Amino acid sequence: MSDLKPLQRKAEHSFNAFFEKYKEDMACAQGCSRCCVGGLSVFAWEAAIITDWFHALSPEQKAAWKERQEVPSSQNQPFINSDGDEDRPCAFLRGDSCSIYEARPSLCRTQGMALSLKSEQGERLRDWCPLNFSTSEPQAQDDLNLDQLNAMLSQAQLIHERENPEALGPLRVDLSDLRDYLLRC
Ligand code: SF4
Question: Which residues line ligand 1 (CB under 6 A)?
């Protein structure tokens, strides 16, 4: 199977470069998990990377991971997001940290960057976390182009399907379902 992890690392490098340039204006820091909202799904190839990561853990590490998932945490309750709406945390968020951090999906590696995408009317829309850039704006040239990123993730899915015809399943996997699956493994 092609190693698609470099694509994930590229997303991470984009974030690091963005953060380096704008660190004075960004609130992103360990312990902030407001981007980690529930209802997320990933392409099957990213779900496969998470599954492979889990299967590579030792029996003791798997047991510890499962134990961590089972512990109820007040920080995993619904919360009011920075837009004032109620959100549920991602199924993999335990406390304020990601329990699959090493294998987290590409989009998670870019959380905190300013984003741009094309609207249905063809205009470019920009967005960023309101916790960042409270007194300034990032330059549009540094935005993460979501349309391009999604195209790359789709392309990776095609490669995954071509190389794993026997593993054809759903195109996208809900992270909550994936966590339930890992707990049963
Ligand atoms: S997978 Fe991890 S980084 Fe991504 S949203 Fe969930 S908890 Fe956050």
Answer: 36, 40, 90, 92-93, 98, 100, 104-105, 108, 175
| Domain range enclosing 174 | 5-184
pLDDT tens, residue by residue, 136-182 = 999 999 999 999 999 999 999 999 999 988 876 789 999 999 999 99
**Cα angle at 47 between 42 and 49, to 5 degrees?**
130
Ligand 1 pocket test: pick from 12, 175, 176 the residue with the most ligand atoms within 8 Å of its Cβ.
175
- DSSP structural state of residue 86: E
How many separate domains does the chain show?
1
Q: What is the pLDDT of residues 44-96, one digit of tens each?
A: 999 999 999 999 999 999 999 999 998 766 667 777 766 777 778 999 999 88
* pTM as predicted: 0.92
Protein residue with its CA nearest to atom 5 in ligand 1: 36
Residue with tokens 């209802």: 39
Phi then psi for residue 153, to 5 deg, are -65, -35
Residue with tokens 């995993």: 76
- Ligand 1 atom closest to the CA of 91, numbered from 1: 6
